[in-house]
């Protein structure tokens, strides 16, 4: 099964520092909310689509 989501823990495993990984997830969530995906407007949600993280990086 191909997983299209990425979490902050996976970003940390890829070599990002914990604070940087959390910032990336936060920016991705803000971008998704601005596009109308209100589901991502949650503080504790730390999983976002990989495509959005790709846009940020």
Automatic annotation (TrEMBL):
A Pfam family found in this protein is DUF3173
Q: Which InterPro entries match?
A: DUF3173 (IPR021512)
Tell me the protein's name: DUF3173 domain-containing protein
Which source organism?
Answer: human gut metagenome
């Amino acid at each position: 099964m191909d997983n299209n989501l990425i979490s902050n823990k996976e970003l940390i495993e890829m070599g990002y520092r914990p604070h940087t990984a959390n910032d990336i997830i936060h920016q991705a969530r803000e971008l998704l909310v601005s596009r109308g995906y209100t589901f991502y407007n949650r503080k504790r949600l730390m999983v976002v689509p990989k495509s959005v993280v790709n846009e940020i990086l």
